[in-house]
Amino acid sequence: MAIPSITGCWDRVEINDLAIVTAASIDKKDNGSIELSIQVFIPKSISSGGGGGGPGQGAGGATTLVKSDVGSNLSEALSKLQGKVPRKVFWGHCKVFVFGERLAKEGIQEQLDFLLRHPQPRERANVYVSKGKGKAILESLPPLEVYSGEVIKELSDLHMGLHVTLHNLAEMLTSKSQAVALPLIKILPPAKGEAKLQGIPYIFGTALFKKDKMTGTMTENEARGLLWLKAELESYTVTLKPEGMEGLISIKPISSHVHIIPQIVNGNWKALVKIDTDGTVIQNGTKLNLSVPESLKIVEHTYQKDVEKRIRLTLLHLQGNGADVIGLAKEFYRKYPNEFSEAENDWKRIFKDMEVEMDVTAHIRRQGYINKTGGLQEEEVKER
């Protein structure tokens, strides 16, 4: 009688033998070497339910510690770091990668190559650039979450800034424009009386790249238009002042559809950007009755002009930096492949000098259950 042999999981690794990485940062030292820092779970802290403070623990009983080492490249730094960690470093749960500012300015291609070749890092992990060293972001102990990597990931999930993954980054670097935009983060200093490390990481702008090198930045205000152009606006509010009216009105954008139409007319490269956006009123501090069509049109017109102003500010900054992060090169290549191939080497100049027209349509789809401003007498409400 034949007895089939049953093989076991000869290469299995128990979870108790893993050092689970939740976030990582990559910095460049003064001597040109690469510093890799990883944020690792502390299993003892999890099983004990989280205690008070202590090294690597935040106000709510944080469950991570930060380990670092240096090498001539990222691969060597990881190899040396593994020698300092008694468990096998596991990247499968790493949600956040932070490039230090100096490294970003000198080039991230080699580091990205390692992260994409390694079988464990997830391509949907989020990527950021830090103001200063990335390691400082990992070492912060935010009071509202158990570790800083979770804070940063939550900000991206809430679309408080650009949402860029490793996969997105690789796609942008190999696109026709080879321009990249990454969320820029720094630490909000702790309030008076809080521990030094209890700062909160937050997104305060956007880092612009040409190929793999950071060439400039955009402030939060300048980058707002980029969220419209990429249809990534979900968690912020637009506050407006209708012309000739007292008070302010706040609108939450609920959808945005963007269509870019490339044009080459008599040798001139142009682009028409069409945006159709809808919003909902979340606060009305004016005396306008939004149930009246004339009043609603006033608000929609103000909303449209505000969106157009934000996008023009963003485009002005992008063209000044020669950073086509909105993908105009791809649109021209699709429609005019021969013309683009001939002009591809001169694309940066073409993009800088290009005339970009705007066509913004804005609608208020939800005025709220209260049509008339709360707290006002009937005779105080304006019908138009």
Commentary on this structure:
With 384 residues, the chain is an alpha/beta fold. It has 2 domains: 12-219, no CATH class; 237-384, Nutrient germinant receptor protein C, domain 3 (GMP Synthetase, Chain A, domain 3), CATH 3.30.300.210. 30% of the residues lie in helices and 30% in strands. The chain is built from 12 helices and 13 strands. It has helices at 43-47, 74-82, 101-106, 109-117, 134-139, 148-157, 166-173, 220-229, 293-321, 328-335, 337-343, 347-353, and strands at 18-28, 34-41, 64-71, 88-90, 96-99, 126-130, 179-188, 200-210, 213-219, 238-240, 249-265, 268-284, 355-366. Strands 1, 2, 3, 4, 5, 6, 7, 8 and 9 form a 9-stranded mixed sheet that branches. Helix 8 crosses helix 9 and helix 10 (328-335) packs across helix 11 (337-343). The N and C termini lie far apart (93 Å).
Report how far the terminal alpha carbons are from each other.
Answer: 93 Å
Order of helices and strands: EEHEHEEHHEHHHEEEHEEEHHHHE
Mean of pLDDT? 86
* Shape label: globular
Family: Belongs to the GerABKC lipoprotein family.
Subcellular location: Membrane
Keywords: Germination, Lipoprotein, Membrane, Palmitate, Signal
Membrane topology: Lipid-anchor
Topology:
Layout: E1 18-28, E2 34-41, H1 43-47, E3 64-71, H2 74-82, E4 88-90, E5 96-99, H3 101-106, H4 109-117, E6 126-130, H5 134-139, H6 148-157, H7 166-173, E7 179-188, E8 200-210, E9 213-219, H8 220-229, E10 238-240, E11 249-265, E12 268-284, H9 293-321, H10 328-335, H11 337-343, H12 347-353, E13 355-366
Parallel strand pairs: 1-4, 1-5, 5-6, 6-7, 12-13
Antiparallel strand pairs: 1-2, 2-3, 7-8, 8-9, 10-11, 11-12
